[in-house]
Here is the input.
Amino acid sequence: MASQTESGRPYIRLLVADVDGTLVTPQKELTERTRQAVHMLHENGIAFAITSGRPPCGMSMLVEPLRLTTPIAAFNGGMFVKPDLTVIDQHVLARELVGPVIKAIHGCGLDVWLYRGCDWLVRRRHAPHVEQEERTVRFSPTVVATFDGILDGVAKIVGVSDDLAAVGRCQADVRRELGDHVSASCSQPYYLDVTHPRANKGTVVRRLSELLAIPTEQIATIGDMPNDVLMFALSGLSIAMGNATPEVQRTARRVTTSNAEEGFANAVERFILGGSRLHSATNH
Here is the structure.
């Protein structure tokens, strides 16, 4: 298969998109142009998949409007599910690491959330960002008095704080203390996601390549956060959002507009479809 189209663009068979900050607006909504852009991909024989730090249930509302048929990569690649949320495979944190991760995050002054499958566990119902996250993922957390004894099946531990400097310090502390035993990255400036070391956006590209039998050089990726850089590095075409930091933008081959300015749809139309492909799709 040719690696480039006649126009010189990379030959793309799959687009993998981050969700928050990329696919949805700052208000966490899908625009009509975004839906149409994904439908145009389908019409042109290009597969579309999503990945996020969200739990599987937090992406189920995207399945119908985007007509998703590909595996969904939840928890930054910690769990792969079918569109009906049936588990394909997952990487959970080793039980002996759960306590030390919680202790490290608490030691930095951050709130802690735990995720097990579709269970979201918090200790304070009205802690910072809980209600915002509930609106985003469209399901409610379970409040527990303590995380003691909750060791098995933990897919993700999140440190939460509006002290962004503290979140950055905590990321460095967790990486220093737990080394290669976990993956620690920020899915938002105020969220530190701690997952299994194989649960990262680079793993997402590799696993989707295997599951869909599409070479990584024929995969495009689009995102906005530092944790998206790993998938940028492994894909044939990488696109950073306009709302990404300059550091993230420098790691991508292309930069589109922000998620408040139809950045996803603009990227699909300009960098994935373009010219004759876009014309044929819109006149399908």
